[in-house]
Amino acid sequence: MKTLKYIFAIAILSISFVSCSSDKDDDPIISNPVEGLNKIYEFTEADHSVEIYTEKTSLEVGYNEISIRIKDMTSDKYITNAEATWMPMMHMETMSHSAPHSMLSNAEHNTVYKGHIVFQMASNATEYWDVTLNYNLNGQAVTETHEVSVIQPADGLKKVQVFLGSDAVKYVLAYVNPKKPQVAINDFQAVLYKMEDMMTYPVVENYKVTVDPRMPGMGNHSSPNNQDLTYNAATKMYNGKLSLTMTGYWKINLKLLNESGDVLKGEDVTESNPESSLYFELEF
Amino acid sequence: MKSTINVFPLRAIRVGFLWFAMLCGAFMSALYAQENPADSLKLINLSEVVVISTGRQLDHQKQRKPLSTLDEFLESSRSINMVKRGAYAWEPTMNDMASERLAITIDGMQIFGACTDKMDPITSYVDVSNLSEAQIGSGQQGAAFGNTIGGGINLKLDKSNFKPTGCNGSLESAFESNNKMRVFGGELNYSDEKFYLNTDGIYRKADNYKTGGDEEVKFSQFEKYNFSVNSGYKLAEGKSVSATLIYDEANNVGYPALTMDVSLVRAVIGSVSFNQDTLFGNFSNWESKVYYNTIKHVMDDTKRPDVLIHMDMPGWSETAGFYTQANFNKEKNHFFFKLDGFYNKSYAEMTMYPTNSNEPLMFMLTWPDVRTKDLGFYAKDHITFEKASLKLSTRLAYHSNTVADDFGLNSLKIFYPEMEKTNTRFLKSFSAQYHKMLNDFHFNGGLSYGERAPSVSEGYGFYLFNSFDNHDYIGDPNLKTESSAEANVSITYKKSIFEITATANYFRVFNYIIGVVDPSLSTMTIGARGVKIYNNLEYTQLFNASLSGRYNISNAFKLTGNVSYHRGVDNDGENLPLISPISYRSALDFYKNQFSASFSVEGAGTQTNYNPAYGETKTAAYATLSASIGKRFFINENNLFVKAGIENILDTYYSSYTDWNNIPRMGRNFYLTISYSIN
């Protein structure tokens, strides 16, 4: 019994020790909020510079999480009161349009302005994307526009769908998570926007997207316990569950339903209809 | 919930069969009543022993076909049937129950196959050259070897055991015409009172076999070799250590009934034991053993034509264990105690290669690194009375399964989001067996209860394809413990020249584990009909009865026969799969002056009780004839034994209920065995 008590005592001590030390470990992570991200652009002006970070090494068609830092050259510090906003624009030969995007927010780390843009298409020789940034620098309103390059994902997989629903509304549905799919029940996340006009893409709320993952290479094998994507007002995204029973190429067949349950886009997968017209692709 | 109408005519069958048996017995006993009883006090046990040993000279004549595969030996047992997926690695079944419900050990060692498709029953990891006998216990009488429902089989290794025989050796070879099987074997032994060393090796290579009517069964070839070393050293009088090492490897094994073959199966089996004649004064035959075995099994479909998706399916199984056992005698009580335990690690994976080579490989864990721990205690008391005896036994075991691989755990959580990593059970077994002798009659009756944990596949299998019913199977970690209540009875009438036995047993298996179709699930294997999830049926009933007899016509001629009936239904009265139809076997053996001959018939009735839901079709009745002759020659001190025979003389085209996908059996086959032993 006595030894048992000692063992317990040691166990409790070591737990408290571990928890103490892990608290301390958090500090250096806070000090570098862009750790693990790639700096894809740095625009240097006379008195300040703008750094643009993403998880990937370039901007791609589909959902892009973007982090922006603005450095004041005079104080050599990243500013925290920029109140930054942005506006992506596609310049085509005959017309221009914007892209669905979130607001920029520095709530997570006060030096990092974070948001996402869903690029519907890639830039090419004659058509290009630019992003206009508005922010305050030492009380001065600054507006600058930078051209950015948007490429098709190297894997060629479909992660964004731009389509006309049966209600004659144009929608943009983009895959967000899982970034690293597992053979498991994955947390599935997507964003849904509609196109009001060339410049306005509001978030669509309270619709539903049904989920039917399939492996076309395996006789359209499917998986159980998937959960439809439903709207989460806090994140302004759609959350669901995605079961993947093995690694490989998966086609996630989807169907978009409005609040009253009308199908706006997509079909059920059946023997005679192996795939839906609304889908994402993934490989792992 | 369940209807109470019991349409199952078990009772009627049982009663009918018993009446038949008794009538036969009475009739026969009337005929031979004038014969004198010779032995009488020898206990008759429901358990059975199949003699295998090839090296021992005296046994040779008794075997109709020496150097046949172990599978064929086991099949000659009246309580064992073999499920066949090809010419090799048959799966033993007992009382119509297969691997998961049996406890099969090699010299007391727990070994678990590494193949998710049951292509490697552990009987495939030893060869006849290693073994002296197979000890068979029906139902809970097999619980000495482990937790079981259907029974236990222990394959006993052949050892010299300090017999002062000195040096001896033998060379053996056999050839079979049908599949051109070549067998080469040999053994070299040394044994004195202080030390022994047994070594043996055997090599078999067979091509595709041909059915009756000369149709070739593609992918039925195999090649296998097996080496073993056994050694013992006497530390002092009544005290010895011994060690065993078996290496078994098979390559290019075809499974015509399956979609895949096996490119490699390798088993290394080793043990060290300590034996002492007495312990604490009162105990005797104290034996303790530690053992370890490792198995690698690689499935392969590269030689098959028209493979849609090429797959790699390797599997590994590793087991370490121990047991320690001793006898204790006190007046009429003969106790046997055994403490045993094992730790097993089962891991299997599947990699599929997509037709579009730009897509990534498809990978899944079919056995998610399941760690099984088992600690058991077995005790038996054999109480002898005058002309009667009572055998009481029990096994109590702690059993746990843990999924050690996170990838595998997450995979299973797709089906069972709430599942626990570890599952622990307490398993119990009790058995009482009574034997009574009345004049020339022996009466045996027993009641028992036993439990078993789900197998790795049943609990944790992930998309295991079963080509018998063409379904993918998924395990259920939350399965209930399967348990069985069993009653058995047997009556033997025995004279020195004549013997007849009628036996019957009945199992009511609760929470019977079997795959049940889940129509909501999508198949993984291309072409599969559906997905089954292992499930507990409320209960099932299994009934087996057999009548067997022996008649010594003269000193040289002996006639034996056996007929058996089997029935298995679930709680809705539906037939269970793989239940034997009426089957029979009879042989006439001749032995005189080192010359032996035999003529035998073996067959089965039409399988009327089958279940298409499990992929079964009605199997037609069949009968085959076989014959053999053998002669022993003495050359100086040594002897040469030659045996030749024909199996399936009429070249019948047939398959039995156990044959997967009704793959037809071998047609006419001539064999010749030559064995030369040097003393």
Summarize the structure in short.
The complex is a heterodimer of chains A (284) and B (679). With 284 residues, chain A is mainly beta.
Question: How do the helices and strands line up, and which of them pair or pack?
Answer:
The complex is a heterodimer of chains A (284) and B (679).
Chain A: H1 2-31, E1 38-44, E2 48-54, E3 59-60, E4 62-72, E5 77-78, E6 85-91, E7 96-98, E8 113-119, E9 128-137, E10 140-148, E11 150-151, E12 160-164, E13 170-177, E14 185-195, E15 208-215, E16 221-222, E17 227-232, E18 237-243, E19 249-257, E20 263-265, E21 278-283
Parallel strand pairs in A: 3-11
Antiparallel strand pairs in A: 1-2, 2-4, 4-5, 4-8, 6-7, 6-9, 9-10, 12-13, 13-14, 14-18, 15-16, 15-17, 15-19, 17-18, 19-20, 19-21
Chain B: H1 10-31, E1 48-51, H2 57-60, H3 70-75, E2 80-83, E3 91-94, E4 102-106, E5 109-110, E6 131-138, E7 151-157, E8 166-176, E9 181-191, E10 195-206, E11 222-236, E12 239-253, E13 261-279, E14 283-300, E15 310-330, E16 333-353, E17 362-385, E18 388-403, H4 406-413, E19 422-438, E20 441-452, H5 456-460, E21 464-466, E22 471-474, E23 482-494, E24 498-517, E25 530-552, E26 557-570, E27 583-592, E28 595-604, E29 622-635, E30 638-647, E31 669-678
Describe this structure in words.
In chain A, strands 12, 13, 14, 15, 16, 17, 18, 19, 20 and 21 form a ten-stranded antiparallel β-sheet that branches. In chain A, strands 1, 2, 4, 5 and 8 form a five-stranded antiparallel β-sheet that branches. A four-stranded antiparallel β-sheet of chain A has the order 7-6-9-10, with no helix packed on it. Chain A folds into two domains: 114 residues, Sandwich (Immunoglobulin-like); 124 residues, Immunoglobulin-like (Sandwich). Helix content of chain A is 11%, strand content 46%. The radius of gyration of chain A is 23 Å and the shape is globular. The longest helix of chain A is centred in the first third of the chain and has 30 residues. Chain A is built from one helix and 21 strands. With 679 residues, chain B is mainly beta. Chain B has one domain: Maltoporin, Chain A (Beta Barrel), CATH 2.40.170. In chain B, 7% of the residues lie in helices and 56% in strands. Chain B is built from five helices and 31 strands. In chain B, a hairpin with a 4-residue loop joins strand 21 and strand 22. The longest helix of chain B has 22 residues. The N terminus of chain B is likely disordered. Classes of the chains: A mainly beta (284), B mainly beta (679). The interface between A and B is medium-sized, with 23 and 29 residues.
